[in-house]
UniProtKB/TrEMBL annotation:
<comment type="similarity">
    <text>Belongs to the HAK/KUP transporter (TC 2.A.72.3) family.</text>
</comment>
<feature type="domain" description="K+ potassium transporter integral membrane">
    <location>
        <begin position="7"/>
        <end position="163"/>
    </location>
</feature>
<dbReference type="GO" id="GO:0015079">
    <property type="term" value="F:potassium ion transmembrane transporter activity"/>
</dbReference>
<keyword id="KW-0812">Transmembrane</keyword>
<feature type="transmembrane region" description="Helical">
    <location>
        <begin position="71"/>
        <end position="91"/>
    </location>
</feature>
<dbReference type="GO" id="GO:0005886">
    <property type="term" value="C:plasma membrane"/>
</dbReference>
<feature type="transmembrane region" description="Helical">
    <location>
        <begin position="21"/>
        <end position="46"/>
    </location>
</feature>
<feature type="transmembrane region" description="Helical">
    <location>
        <begin position="128"/>
        <end position="151"/>
    </location>
</feature>
<dbReference type="InterPro" id="IPR053951">
    <property type="entry name" value="K_trans_N"/>
</dbReference>
<keyword id="KW-1133">Transmembrane helix</keyword>
<keyword id="KW-0472">Membrane</keyword>
<feature type="transmembrane region" description="Helical">
    <location>
        <begin position="103"/>
        <end position="122"/>
    </location>
</feature>
<protein>
    <recommendedName>
        <fullName>K+ potassium transporter integral membrane domain-containing protein</fullName>
    </recommendedName>
</protein>
<dbReference type="InterPro" id="IPR003855">
    <property type="entry name" value="K+_transporter"/>
</dbReference>
<dbReference type="Pfam" id="PF02705">
    <property type="entry name" value="K_trans"/>
</dbReference>
Length: 165
């Protein structure tokens, strides 16, 4: 009994031995999907910035002749790898990485809610009270989560803020 209570102290939630491997597989697959989304998004943004002359010229490799938009940018891929290694080596602790990821996710949610209220108002041409109500209901919840994440700012959550600036 003492051993299971010790496990609870050091982990976010307890997973039985039978479920540990399936949960690990799901977590790895989620990380692969998330990293692919970041890579694809970065390539797309860099390509658009280069087309608008807002970014230095880089080599863009089109990986498919049939599907438009599938690109690979070797320099950016190497830069992303080096940044990931630097952050991973710099943290040396999964708890700090979790703090950073938590602040990043809740910040994205808060910004999305603010932008969605603008979509309700400007694109959907709904009444301003509907947009404010949406912003108040969801923004209040997310602002509470955001303020809770700020407590961990000095424990690793400063990294997403630094990378954005």
């Amino acid at each position: 009994m003492e051993e299971s209570s010790a496990n609870l102290q050091f982990s976010l939630f307890y997973i039985s031995e039978k479920l540990r491997f399936p949960v690990l597989v799901i977590a790895i697959l989620a990380a692969v999907v998330g990293s692919q989304a970041i890579i694809t998004g970065t390539f797309s943004i860099i390509k658009q910035c280069s087309a608008l002359s807002c970014f230095p010229r880089v080599k863009v490799v089109h990986t498919s002749s049939k599907i438009h938009g599938q690109i690979y940018i070797p320099e950016i891929n190497w830069l992303l790898m080096l940044l990931c290694l630097a952050v991973t080596i710099g943290f040396r602790d999964t708890k700090r990485m979790g703090n950073a990821a938590g602040l990043a996710v809740i910040t994205v949610m808060l910004v999305t809610t603010c932008l969605m209220s603008l979509v309700i108002l400007l694109c959907w041409h709904q009444h301003v009270l509907l947009a404010l109500g949406f912003l108040f209901i969801f923004g209040t919840i997310e602002a509470l989560f955001f303020s809770a994440s700020l407590i961990k700012f000095l424990e690793g959550a400063w990294v997403p803020s630094m990378l954005v600036a």
